[in-house]
Structures are given as structure tokens and as C-alpha cells.
Amino acid sequence: EAAASASLADLWSMLRQALGRIDSLEMENVAIRGGSAALRKDLKSLQEENKAMRGDMDKIKDENRALKWSLSKLAGRVQQSWEYPKEGWIQPDEYWQSKDYDDDYISDLNQSFIGYIKSAVSDLAHGVCNSVVYVGDDNNSHMIQHDAALMQHWSALCEDFYVSINPFGTGMEISFESIQLNEDVMEKICSCLRGRNVREVGFTRIEFT
Q1: Which one of 64, 79, 134, 169 is least enclosed by Cβ atoms within 10 Å?
Q2: pTM, whole model, 2 decimals?
């Protein structure tokens, strides 16, 4: 009987040890699961960071291609001693006065239309145009009226839009404001910009004739 009691006590001791071991293993298992969850979270974070870095690298590569393209174009134009095509296209003030335009309008025309186009064409031709081209009266004091004498300027601008917009980078943003356009000019603009690296084209306070 004493031997049976001892044997029973040994069994209970062994059972308690086994239960304790099970509890310990369960705690270790919980810790492992927690560690695995943390590892999965860290891995996901690393994957997201890696994706962002790849995106940044692609952006840098694109900007680098855009810069190389601009520098190549600039070097070529400098060697050619570029100037605005056909200075004779710019009409004397008397031309506009004969059409009953006052001095304020002529000043706005020369600055806000012809001046902006000359600047845009120059920048485009040299490959140094930033992302924005603005053409029009930014003071909104005059509506730039359509005239046959302005078609050569439109042609020069549209030609450089077609051949000189940087194919790399974020894309050109172009704005036309307070200008009177006819069907031929609109067709030129749409045709030369089709398929080019253009992010946005804005038309504000435009009249059609």
C-alpha cells in the first residue's frame, strides 16, 4: 500500500511537470507567434520602403534624362548663335495704330503676347524651358485680338512645341489667357501638342473668331 501511494505521488509529480512544460511551451509558442507577426510587419515595412526607393530612383533617372536632353539641346543652339526667327515679323507700332489700337494695347501686345512667345520659343529652342509656358495678358487689361500679322508668331511657337518639348520629366504646363483665337490657330495648337510630353493646357478668358 505504501508502494502504491509512492507510485501515485510520483505520477502526480510527473503530471504537474508535464502540465508545467505544456504551459511553458504554449507561452513560447505565443512568443514565437508574436515575434513572427512583428517580423511580418517589419518585412512589409521594408517592402514598402523598397518600393518607395525604387519610385524615387525612377524619378531621379527621369530627371537625369531630362537634364541631359536639355544640356544637349542648349549646347547645339549656343553653337548656332540662335536668335528669334524673322525679326521682321514684329510689326512697327504704326501698323497697329493704323488699326485704331491705342498705345496701351500695343504695349500689352508687344509684352504679353509677342514678348512671351519670343521668350517661350527661345527657351524651348535652347532646351531650358521650365515646366510652364504662359502666353497672354496676365494683367487682364486687354484681350489680345487676332490678327493675320500674328500668325507667324503662332507658327514659330507651335513649331517649337512640336520639336522642342522635353520628352522627359514631369511634362509641360501651358497656359493661354485673354487671347482671341481663330480656327487655324486652335488647329495649330492642338496638332503640335498631340503626343508631346504635356501635363496640362489651360485656356482662360479666350474669345473665338
Answers
A1: 79
A2: 0.63
Cell numbers for 21: 512544460
Our measurement of the distance from residue 113's CA atom to the centroid of its chain's CA atoms, rounded to an integer in Å, reads 25
The whole-angstrom separation of Cα 114 and Cα 122 is 12
Alpha helix (H) ranges present in 80-131?
93-97, 103-108, 116-126
How far apart are alpha carbons 178 and 137 in whole angstroms? 6
Residue 122 in contact with residue 84, Cβ under 8 Å? yes
Q: For the chain, which ranges sit under pLDDT 70? A: 1-13, 15, 18-20, 23, 29-31, 34-37, 39, 42-43, 46, 53, 55-82, 85-87, 130-132, 137-141
Beta bridge partners of 201: 174
Any idea of the CA torsion for 47, 50, 55, 57, to the nearest 10 degrees? -170
Element at 28 (helix H, strand E): helix 2-79
